[in-house]
Amino acid sequence: MFTGIVRELGTVVSAAERGGGREIVVSASETAPATNVGDSVSVNGCCLTAAAVEGERLVFHAVAETLARTTLGSLEPDDRVNVEPAVRAGEPLGGHFVQGHVDGVGRVQSVEAEGDGLRVFVEAKSDVLRYCVEKGSVTLDGVSLTVAEVADDAFAVALVPHTIQVTTLSELVPGREVNVEVDVLAKYVERALAWGRSRGG
To answer: Domain total for the chain?
Structure first.
């Protein structure tokens, strides 16, 4: 489990097709030394397992299913990525409960200056938008954010200067694809209500 609070900006060293998936090597000088083989690490919001740790580099294997549902298949050397190690017992939860299970790929619709920050609209499919509510939580490329507005085909988030400085969201432009994970609590509420109705409750 993660919190959506990015610990560092990593850099893709290599990304090559392997065994029907993709081997992705990320340079992460702060995260790698504290990571063991088998540990979970969020890379742009995708929960990946460290297959190897080589100094300041982390090696991951992304399977076909992951590549089909995320933007990891488009990563190239020198791309920056948001990196967060799994939360450990006793650590503060500064963002929200994030699983690292991407619900869909959204597309940036617009990026507008808003004071010292930015307002970003992201187009998403209905099966993602159904869980987006104003003031609710959402994760973009592994960054915990608050939904500022919901439209028919998109939702908006407001980026504060700190988030812009320490994450890859500073690179957002119209047309760019991002990994979207909705708040898992919304899914549990929906499931509980559906179960209650089916039982006549």
So the answer is: 2
Q: Which residue has the tokens 């609710």?
A: 136
Residue 94 domain-assigned? no
What tens-digit pLDDT sequence spans the chain (201 residues)?
A: 899 999 999 999 999 998 889 999 999 999 999 999 999 999 999 999 999 999 999 999 999 999 999 999 999 999 999 999 998 766 666 667 888 999 999 999 999 999 999 999 999 999 999 999 999 999 999 999 999 999 999 999 999 999 999 999 999 999 999 999 998 776 666 666 666 666 665
**Domain span including residue 16:** 8-85
Which residue, 29, 51, 85, sits at the end of a domain? Answer: 85
Residue pair 18/24 in contact by the 8 Å Cβ criterion:
no
Question: What global pTM score does this model have?
Answer: 0.91
User: What is the Cα–Cα distance from 142 to 99, expressed in whole angstroms?
Assistant: 10
- Residue 142 resides in a domain: yes
